[in-house]
User: Fold this.
Amino acid sequence: MSSTRADLIVVGGGPIGLATAIEGRRAGLSVLLVEPRIGPVDKACGEGLMPGTVAALQRLGVHIKGAPFRGIRYVAPNGDRTVTHRFSTDVGLGVRRTELHAALAARAAEVGVLSHRGRVVGIPTARSAAGANARAGIEVMVELDDGSAVGGNWVLGCDGLHSIVRRESGLALGSDGRRFGIRRHAALAPWTDVVEVHWSAKGEAYVTPISDTEVGIAVLGPRGWPFDEALATFPALARRLSGARWTTPARGAGPLRQKVASPIGDRVLLVGDAAGYVDALTGEGLRIGLACAHEAVRCVAAGRPQDYPRRWRSVTREYRWLTSGLVTTTRVPIARRLLVPTAARLPRIFGAAVDALAR
Assistant:
């Protein structure tokens, strides 16, 4: 079994894995990124980058172009009630996931991140990797599906909702399997400069401007909810999209809810969706993931990895509380019906929540 060594083994080559790898190089660490797929990796997501996310990417040296949006609008199913709040700071950007991935990959290569194509199949613990590995200065090994292995001081699991690192390190606690996401794109000029969130009895639909000629539609709802059936529950949105040409097929993701025992294990730190996920309802996945990537690398570089759980809790607390509360509340049908009218009657509270998400 051949092996390669680096200070950080980053597993997962999506946006959070690439951002984590870039953070590692900025901290002066050698980084090896392990990912089985080639080229820009697509994913079912809302594709709206909040202002705080755009700022975090710029700090990493990643500058992207996209369709600007200036706030969030909640829309009742028939479109008869709406509430809008425009960001009090900067603008967000609607960016195709593949374009975001390509920009991050280019920056990772520029700062010296090394890549290894392969799928992780096992992570022997630091204790079981003692002996020859320890004498070689390798603290933990990552076994790949081609029979090779990579080793280093720390493994950072950035491999998403269905994280192999989370499972292999014994940190996974399962999921509740209730909520899933579906995304498509339509060849249609954006009709507003905000992200619209349409509410229905069973789920939500997010409309994000992607360019001058395209919008992204992401639907969240129960398992097995066909996209066309879901769209029909948002009459106002369905009318907008009537006759529009779909430019991409439906792409799904889920289950969204993922539970973990801890974001840290034996020589393993979990980052992004791999570290546990509540729901996509508030659209904060990338913002939270980028913040956690920064904290994980910061802890490791300082020789204080034991600080990561505390910092992870601090970074994710607001997201976990707000998202969990909103998901739990809207499981009650009457609460879903009253959400938009209530937000419209309490614009200051709605605006404060939007600005908190935008940071």
In short: The chain is about 35% helix and 30% strand. Residues 308-329 form the longest helix (22 residues). The first strand starts at residue 3 and ends at 11. The domain at 3-50+95-175+257-330 is CATH 3.50.50.60 (FAD/NAD(P)-binding domain).
